Amino acid sequence: MMKGSFKIKDYVAQATPIVVILFVALFAVFGSVFGPSLRNIFVSVATPSETGEYVLLSREVLIARLSDAERELKRVRYQAALYALTTEENVRLRDAANAVKISGGATGRVISRPPQTLYDSLLIDVGTIQEVSLGDLVVFENVALGRVVAVTAQSSTVQLFSSPGSSQDVLIGNPVAVSTAHGLGGGAFELSVPQSVSVEPGDVVRLPGTESYVLGIVVGSSFKATDVSKLVRFSGVGSLADLDFVRVITELP
Amino acid sequence: MMKFISTLIFFGTILWGPWWLTVALAVFLLALWKSSATLIIGGMVADMLFNVPLAPLFNITFFYTLLFGFLIIIERYLRARLLD
């Protein structure tokens, strides 16, 4: 580069940091405006097509699959009838005992999960159409995963309980103590309990409530003799990488 | 052509790949082709899709954009000091 000459390229190079900062600032202000639309588009694209996998199959294979599917459907229908009877009985028993009613729920497919994203979040394909709302609890089988923090018509973003800075009341130890678990990121948590509460590796940490969901399994604890409390570390149950479907527990009207 | 394919893979990993691969590809794109705009757009897309408030970082919801922004600034600084 010749001294004293002015090139646009040089100006661009010098201005890059300012332009970058400007973009980040603009996104911080306006990013949330376009986010919901983009999430809806991504969920529509990422959800596997129901017919796509059959396009290349032969007629014989399709017939065999259809007959298998019909047999499976009969079995599922029978189980569904049993489930409906059990649910009805459960509702009647809860009414008779004046117990809290079971919350409704929606089953959603997981579109993205850690480690796909740096955030400790899930993107699922159920939204306001399925009556999902902000703050709804998201579970997999009997394991509590997180709460809905953003919802659009067809998608929801779930903040995992293990996300850094997240806090959640839990039950732990013997005798049972109530404590606040703090997320550390990557499925790890920590909490403190009085030293008189016995906590062993492998103990289950649960959410308080009528339907007690598991939050994690104790990994270890540490304490100093001079402290009144001890620090307990625990991790979430199962691998998020294998998570395909979750249930959103919607609040009762 | 390589740049175009790499950019496609970069956006593909944002949507379907692990985060560490996305960041590695971002460094790759920057080092080879100075793809600043691609990174900023990629960061915005990732944030709009997956963001949740990050409590340790003052509840920001644009971590990817910020991270890629820092990468671009560092790349420009290093290139100016070491190569140009």
Class per helix and strand makeup of chain B: mainly alpha
Mean pLDDT of chain A: 84
Shape of chain A: flat
The biggest sheet of chain A, with number of strands, parallel, antiparallel or mixed sense and barrel status, is:
6 strands, antiparallel, barrel
Arithmetic mean of pLDDT of chain B: 88
Q: Any idea what the shape of chain B is?
A: flat
Strand content of chain A: 25-35%
Residue stretches of chain B low in confidence (pLDDT < 50, at least 5 long) are none
Pair of chains with the largest interface and how many residues each contributes: A-B, 35 and 35 residues
Order of helices and strands of chain A: HHEEEEEEEEEEEE
- Compute the separation of the termini of chain A in Å: 71 Å
- Strand line-up in the sheet with most strands of chain A: 1-2-5-4-3-12
Could you describe the largest sheet of chain B, including whether it forms a barrel? none
Count of discrete alpha- or pi-helical segments spanning 4 or more residues of chain A: 2
Rg of chain A (CA only): 25 Å
Low-confidence stretches of chain A: none
Helical content of chain B stands at over 70%
Structural class of chain A, please? alpha+beta
Termini separation of chain B comes to 25 Å
Number of strands of chain A: 12
Walk me through this protein's architecture.
The complex is a heterodimer of chains A (253) and B (84). Chain A is α+β, with helices and mostly antiparallel strands and 253 residues long. Chain A contains two helices and twelve strands; from the N terminus they run ααββββββββββββ. In chain A, a hairpin with a 6-residue loop joins strand 10 (214-222) and strand 11. The N and C termini of chain A lie far apart (71 Å). The model of chain A has no long low-confidence stretch (mean pLDDT 84). Chain B is an all-alpha fold. Chain B has four helices and no strands. Chain B has helices spanning 2-16, 19-33, 36-50, 63-83. Chain B is flat, with a radius of gyration of 13 Å. The interface between A and B is medium-sized, with 35 and 35 residues.
